[in-house]
Design goal:
2 copies of one chain form a homodimer. Chain A has 2 domains: about 1-45, Orthogonal Bundle (Arc Repressor Mutant, subunit A); about 50-185, Tetracycline Repressor, domain 2 (Orthogonal Bundle). The first copy, chain A, has helices at about 1-10, 20-25, 30-35, 40-60, 70-85, 85-100, 100-130, 140-155, 155-160, 170-185. By secondary structure, chain A is mostly helical. Chain A binds a DNA duplex through helix 3.
DNA sequence: GTCTATATAATGATAGAC
DNA sequence: GTCTATCATTATATAGAC
């Protein structure tokens, strides 16, 4: 499964042969078919494993407390950090999100992403009630933009780093700073000490 | 090429066979090899065509004038509109951006994306000089965020529409409004008529 | 330009010995 | 559990007639 995960994360399903997986794992092709009934079953096992891994990583974030100024930034930074810490798993799940048709997209959303997403929306709603997050922003849109930025950064660095004026392509810290600045526009400005 | 474009945009390279393309086009497989020396050459021809199409569409935007308040929103809306108007071409180019390794990513950036991107950066820089765009924002980051949001919206609608609280997944107009609001946070507030 | 027919290699999957 | 050997199918690509 380790070999399969490596190969499936770098090439689409149809471009990875059972022979290649067997060679990468140092076993025979027939041995793979002894443990998994089919190529599809092996892929599904790898995907399920990667999903549970990233779900476990993501759930750490929602447990944090503190005001939304800190937790929103922490959410964004840790999401990117998790992807970079397990790029193979991230690529697997992202490919599934991007290339899946209606039926598989529904499964992915309802069985894997839904609970985590709802928990984060609730976090932002309560921040709005406390007056920390601007009342007229859509929590789901905020989460969408954070994910979009992180995923795009993670997936297109190889292209971006060859574009002029892109100072953050190979500097995750700078990207984090830019993100933090940008998130601030949705926050209610902190009260000064007053006159 | 029309048939190949259709199939390549819906499945990765290795999952599309020359037989399938021939059948889709209503010709024989050998006929394809008469016009293109190999499967790879056919794919490259399709990709080049799709890239020049989307480049032509994108270049319309940069010709617009007016202050940055209008042009930034117009830029974002038309980028999404162009992807939705030619989803096949968009998927082809996006797959290439996401899945390409270092060598192909460099080609894509330098030969296709670079000029357009630089033109847009210049547009935003001059807006900063005119005092319409906040001076402390990174023009490249602004463009990155716009593209990230549009691409993510375009690519993951099938997943998003099954998430609760996502009101914009099947409503491009609402998404456009949310984007416009969000872009406004980088603009210098318009001067009121004064006291 | 288009076809039928074919060459050659690789694919997913199986049989059966150890 | 692991292997060698093999099946049937499909893949890319070619040959040569019309």
């Amino acid at each position: 499964m380790h070999a399969a995960r490596k190969l499936f994360s770098n090439s689409p399903y149809s471009a990875v042969s059972m022979s290649a997986i067997a060679e990468e794992a140092g076993v025979s092709k027939a041995n793979l078919y002894h443990h998994f009934p089919s190529k599809d079953a092996l892929f599904m096992a790898v995907l399920r494993c990667a999903c549970s891994d990233s779900a476990a990583l993501l759930s750490q974030v929602s447990g944090e407390s503190g005001d939304v100024r800190r937790s929103l930034k922490s959410l964004a930074l840790r999401q990117l950090h998790n992807m970079q810490a397990d790029p193979e798993g991230a690529r697997l799940v992202l490919r599934e999100i991007f290339d899946s048709g209606p039926e598989r997209g529904k499964l992915l959303a309802e069985q894997i992403l839904r609970d985590n997403f709802s928990a984060k929306v609730r976090m932002l709603r309560s921040a709005q009630n406390r007056g920390e997050l601007k009342a007229d922003v859509d929590p789901a849109f905020v989460l969408f933009m954070i994910s979009a930025a992180n995923i795009m950064y993670f997936q297109s660095r190889e292209v971006m780093k060859h574009l002029p004026d892109v100072t953050f392509a190979e500097d995750a810290d700078r990207f984090g700073d830019l993100m933090a600045d940008f998130l601030a526009c949705w926050l209610v400005p902190e009260r000064g000490p007053g006159p």
